[in-house]
């Protein structure tokens, strides 16, 4: 069997420190060094020193290094997929997809490195020229989550390095091994070690505070909860960092009466149950028009009931464990509250025996806004189904949240497509599509779901500063 151990440098391991476990089995995968404050500060200083020479390279030279990193990730796809599954529990098929998706950001930003264009603006007076330059912001830091332990890193490190910045990374304490494997592959690709460094720690909040308080770090990118994002924003205020945050969501999935119901169910399955419902763009609320409600629920329930729960490394498993016991307890608490207030279980609704935090894929009907599960991000394999009558009502329900990350709807009416697409207060909208993530499109939310964009041609702008130069004396 292919193993991932050669992808992590031996000096990362220790006998006491950060313990990494497999959420499906509870087995310890590794114990990693718990870096001290002095080590963290040294990494930041070395990154800031190294970025000067890196930024002076041609964009084509930086692009070649990023492309080599992309190629090494793809060459090690199976090892990385097994590592992702071991760390966060998602089925191997999904993990393989994440490796390819993560690598795509390096390929994309390798190409975008060569397209950082400035401007020449017509001058306001004779004998002058106005130039606009785009320059790397400097040393960047990133804090990434456990649910996409590879792709959330490359989506940030790719544009940073392409722009000429260095990056210091603090991965989630549940999934640091994937980050360390990426660090190894980056060095093998010829990217100087100080430019992309991984911090391992048992004190993530403390290290986050160090990153926020550092004047050396000029940019912070974070993917995680809205509550933590607000803390990081407050902690970064004194150093006036440039920030980009991808935070929590409460995604609606609207099924109108003119939708292709079979297509809507297909979209529901991939959008809701991927990674056991543990993604920021997972559907939280299915809003289904009354006349097609029963048909949609029946077809969704049939599909959900056939899903196989278990260790993601096992053949045929489509739903892995939740990341830990606390996540399982949260789902159970939300389910209990909903059922006490009148919701009905059409499928699942219970724990699944095993060493890990397994919960059965669930369909919960007759959900109403009074239930906590309606407004809280579930982060578990539970589909909540809500009735509505009119288009206006669906839009109002969908927008009645502080979050605005992703939204989905299904209709075969072209006019309705445009009306609803424009009316939804979300940073991303899938129309007759359940999967919206791609390296070529801008990923990000509005309202309490964050600020800034990742991926696409807009993603590299997050790591650039605009400099205006007025040149006189030209007559």
TrEMBL record:
NCBIfam families: SSADH (TIGR01780). This is Succinic semialdehyde dehydrogenase. Belongs to the aldehyde dehydrogenase family. Pfam families: Aldedh. One of its GO terms (biological process) is gamma-aminobutyric acid catabolic process. The keyword Nucleotide-binding does not apply. Residues 16-468 form the Aldehyde dehydrogenase domain. Keywords: Oxidoreductase. One of its GO terms (molecular function) is succinate-semialdehyde dehydrogenase (NAD+) activity. Gene3D superfamilies: Aldehyde Dehydrogenase, Chain A, domain 1, Aldehyde Dehydrogenase, Chain A, domain 2. CDD domains: ALDH_F5_SSADH_GabD (cd07103). It comes from Aequoribacter fuscus.
